[in-house]
Amino acid sequence: MTTDPRDHAIAALLSEERSYPPPEDFAAGANAQADLYERSFEELWETEGRERVTWFEPFTELYEWEPPYAKWYLGGRLNVCFNCVDRHVESGNGDKVAYHWEGEPVGEREAITFAGLQERVVRFANGLKKLGVGKGTPVGIYMGMIPELPVAMLACARLGAPHTVVFGGFSADALAGRLNDMGCEVLITQDEGWRKGANVPLKANADEALARCPGVRHAVVARRTGEGPALREGRDVAWDELAGGESADPATCPCEPMDSEDLLYLLYTSGTTAKPKGIAHTTAGYLVGTATTHHYIFDVKPDSIYWCAADIGWVTGHSYIVYGPLCNGTTSVLYEGTPDFPDRDRWWEIVERYRVDVLYTAPTAIRAHMKWGTEHAAKHDLSSLRLLGSVGEPINPEAWMWYRENIGGGRTPVVDTWWQTETGMILISPLPGVTTVKPGSATQPFPGIDAAVVDERGEEVPNGQGGYLVLRKPWPAMLRGLYKEHDRYVDTYWSRFPGLYFTGDGAKRDEDGDFWLMGRVDDVMNVSGHRISTIEVESALVDHPAVAEAAVCGRKDDLTGEAIVAFVTLKGSEEASVEMLDTLREHVAQKIGKIARPANIVFTPELPKTRSGKIMRRLLRDVSEHRTLGDTTTLADPSVVEEIRDRAEDEKAKAV
Ligand code: WT7
Predict the structure, then answer these.
(1) What's the pTM value of the predicted model, to 2 decimals?
(2) Helix 148-159 and helix 114-130: axis angle, to 10°?
């Protein structure tokens, strides 16, 4: 792995000498002080568990660790919605804004207070009850970034109904697969979404998906554009009709007391096989973990205006737009659209208008803003910003510096936060008032987290040497397994290094012990901060009748981190053409979603295979990144790769 030329982060690490201690005034007032690192694992999670959430019945045991499964806060009873909504109203903060919602069409906005949120959640939860939703009923959610999305999640949590949110950019196929896997009985969706000024056909996709989901009895459809397909008699019900006449009095819909270890949600994520993995997150540990990290890492204050610019359809949105911030009673911005609609200064206009003090986004977005130029941010007063965050993929030092200088005015700490859908909460990140930050480094494990870099044998490597990132102790928000797939859970995370959780990431620590993440070491690509497995895209391609065989890899891309390249062998009678290329790209978009659409497709009569028939993706990556080819001696037919290279260069010439 250390010889993998993809590990450009190593080079960055060698040359990166800039570092920034926390500004003095920031450090003095920071939520996290250095003593947080001195608390023992037990003391930290015990205290946070008791103090950060409200229990219906206190827990009696901190945790139980029977590898590979952990349980946390055993014996406790609580409700996530109560913690995120009701308790803030009861403590007199009902008038505080929970979400400043900003629609994509300019001028559409709404301030939703905690009391307002409670009303909406209670009404809607009462409506869901009429559809037979109760404790344990699996519910699917397929929506854009409108207030009804967190309302739907919270209503499920209130009733004890586990949800799965499917990102609104996913296709009907992807949606159907997830709904069926979880056995969802109800789907909550909306007529259409807004994205870049265009309509996203959510209800139309949902209709297509539901044709293949016999278990889904009802669909609830929220109104956004007022367009989209008609409601289907007997199955569909309009959100307003369902909830409109219901009581908003919380006493009519009490928060279901849940066991600490009851399932809160599943979130599906890509792995090294075509079938997405249902990552299971439970109630107490997840809530404590997300709220604790949100408090200390984002340094949120009672008057903060915090903005996590992710989509709720990914784990970042679950943990740091919905559950963590609401549990802490934080005011957030919730923005529906893209950063460049109608203009490239949309984000900065939002920061200025709400006086946002904490902004959390992804390197791919930062690089897009970089590309568009500094003039858009310069038009706005961004002096309210105190802290910037990054997540999703390694952030290049240039992008980190650009972010700090042009958005943070050269004064704000930047926290590069490493975590995964599986970890549920941030695990490696600076504490902004304590840690000296370095462009491109996620620095240190959060207090109580035991992360290490190990070699092939599972032994810790010395600082300065690359290896595999593993976790040696459980943490409250860790996944409780893969939904109904025990063997796959063990296989994916626990078999490579017995007793250690394998993250799938390469990493290295510098001489200060700071962590530098170096990307995935498995067959998973990271496109715009989102994981997509090579095999998932390959399966989608092979699903097309013209395709005989396909191999997919990621190549470095300045904007999206990695871009998807597909090598496709067509069936005998099929012709490689520009039309075929478009057809196949659309086919992948249809099967998975636009995010998985290959940037390039290279048609080739043969794929490079080992004598045992394994496709050598490493060589394809070399070809895609125009590198000299690595070892080809294990190839069954070495001439194949030369041929592919010529074709790939041809493709590039065509593209230019
Ligand atoms: C993978 C997890 C966690 C929310 C978004 C992605 C990569 C994530 C960083 C970071 C370097 C990062 C890793 C990880 N990743 N954050 N700060 N530095 N790499 O969630 O889809 O579950 O992907 O994203 O490769 O394993 P996800």
Answers:
(1) 0.93
(2) 60
